[in-house]
Amino acid sequence: MELAERLTTLLEASLDLADERDPHELAVKSVAAACRLLDARYGALFIDDAGVLTDFVTWGIDEATAAAIGDPPTRTGLHGFLLKGGRTIRSDDLTTDSRATGFPRHHPVMHTFVGTPLRYRGRVLGELYLAEKQGGDTFTADDERVLEALAALAAAAYWNAQLLAAERQVAARATALLDARERGDGPQAVFRRLVWAEEEERARVARELHDGLGQILTSAALFAKGVEESVDGELAARVAVFRRLVERALVSARALVRGLRPLELDELGLLAALERLTADVRETHGLRVDLHGAPVPASRDVETAVYRIIQEALNNVVRHAGATWASVVVGRNAGRVVVIVEDDGRGFDRGALTTHGMRGEQLGLLGMKERAAAIGGELTVESEPGRGTLVRLEVPAEP
Questions:
Q1: How far, CA to CA in Å, does 182 sit from each of 137, 191, 200, 252?
Q2: How far is CA 181 from CA 175, 251, 259, 367, 369, in A?
C-alpha cells in the first residue's frame, strides 16, 4: 500500500473508531482496519481484564475453522510476551520462533507475524496482532509503527466505548426506577441515590472522553495539518479533506462531552454552563433562546441539579413544544435559587400526560420534579394548549 493510501486509510480508521459506541463492534473495526493497513491475511484482537478474556474477535478465519480451533488464546506463548512485556513483537517465521507455543489443533499455519499491546494510560488492555502478510512478504519496521499508531487509537476508543456503555446502563436503571416511582412502587430514596450516582458516572465519563478521545482527535488533526503542509498536489488535497473530517469529529466529541457533563459547570460555574447550553440549542436546533441572569453562588450539588433541570426543560421545548422562542431566567431570592424556563410553543393539557402519546414528556417532568425534591426544592409547571409552557424552580442555595 502506497504512503498516500495508507495515510488515508489510517485517518479513515481513526474517525470510524472515534465515532463507534459499541465496544465489540469497535474491536471488529480495529482488526479489519489493521489487516487493510498492513495487507495481512489474518488478524485478531482480544481484551484482557486482569487475566480474564472479555472480548475476542478475529479476521480472515471462517466460522467452521474458528469452531474447530476451539477456545480463544490464553496468556501463554507470544500472547504472554505481548501482555507482560508490553512491547511490539515481530516475527518472520512463527514455525521456527521459540516464543510461538501453544497453537491448537486445526489452527492455520502462520509464518509472518506482528503484534502489539493495546495500551491506554499505562494500562495494557489486551493486544492486536496480525499474521501472514499477503504476497509472502515479511512485516516491516514501518508496519510496526503503523500498527502501534492504530492500536493506540483502538485502545483509547475501546476504553471510551466501555465508559459510555457503563453510563448507559446507569441511565437505564435510573429510567426504570423512575418508571417504578411513577407507578408508586419505587422508593424515592433509592431513586435519588441512583440519580446522583448517574451524575458522578457522567462526570467521570466526560473527563475520560475529554482527556482521551479529545486529545487523540486533536493530535490527529495536528498530524494531518503537518502532513498537508509538507506535501503537494493531490495528496495535499486528500489530506486536507480528512483533516476537516477529523476536526468535525472533534466538534462532535466535544458536544458529546458537554452532553454528559459540561466542563464549564465544574470550572466556571452554572451561568457559564448555561451560556454554553443555550448557545448549543440555538446552533443545533435553530431555536431562539434568551438567557438572563447573574452568577448565583450555590453548592455543587445545587448547580448540578439546576443545570440538569434546565437542560431537560429545553429538551422538552425542542422535542415537544414546536416553539420559536424560549427564555431562561436564573436569579437568587432570600437564599434560594429561582429559575424560570418559558416558551411560546403549543403547550399541553396537564391531564393528557397520562396518555401513551405523552409518555416521554411525562417521565421528563417527573424526573425534573424528583431532582428538585432531592435538594429540597420545588418545581411547578404551568401550561395550556396553544399558550406555551412555563417551568418554575425554587431550590435552596445549599441543599
A1: 65, 11, 24, 34
A2: 10, 37, 25, 10, 12
Minimal CA–CA distance to 390: which of 355, 347, 349, 337?
A: 347
CATH for 1-261? Answer: 3.30.450.40
C-alpha span between 173 and 170 (Å, rounded): 5
Element at 250 (helix H, strand E): helix 233-260
**What is d(CA 396, CA 368) in angstroms, rounded to the nearest whole number?**
16
Q: In DSSP terms, which residues pair with 55 in a beta bridge?
A: 47
How does pLDDT run along the chain (399 residues), one tens digit per residue?
665 567 667 767 777 777 777 888 889 999 999 999 899 999 999 887 666 677 888 898 888 888 888 777 776 677 777 777 778 888 888 888 888 776 777 788 888 999 998 887 677 888 899 999 988 889 988 888 888 888 888 888 887 777 777 656 656 665 665 566 555 555 555 555 656 666 665 666 666 666 666 667 777 777 778 777 877 787 788 778 777 777 777 777 777 676 676 777 777 788 888 998 898 889 888 899 999 987 777 888 888 888 889 988 998 898 888 899 999 999 888 788 899 999 998 888 766 554 444 444 455 677 788 788 878 889 999 988 888 899 999 988 775
- What gap in Å lies between CA 56 and CA 52, rounded to an integer? 11
Task: Give the cell for residue 318.
Answer: 425542542
Kindly give the pairing relationship between strand 336-343 and strand 325-333.
Answer: antiparallel
The Cα–Cα gap between 13 and 36 comes to 10
Burial of 357 by CB count in 10 Å (0-12 exposed, 13-18 middle, 19+ buried)?
A: exposed
Question: For the structural domain made of 269-396, what CATH number should be given?
Answer: 3.30.565.10
- CB-CB contact of 47 with 158 (8 Å): yes
Distances (CA, A) of 223 to 208, 227, 269: 22, 6, 34
Parse the chain into domains and list their residue ranges: 1-261, 269-396
| CB-CB contact of 41 with 132 (8 Å) | yes
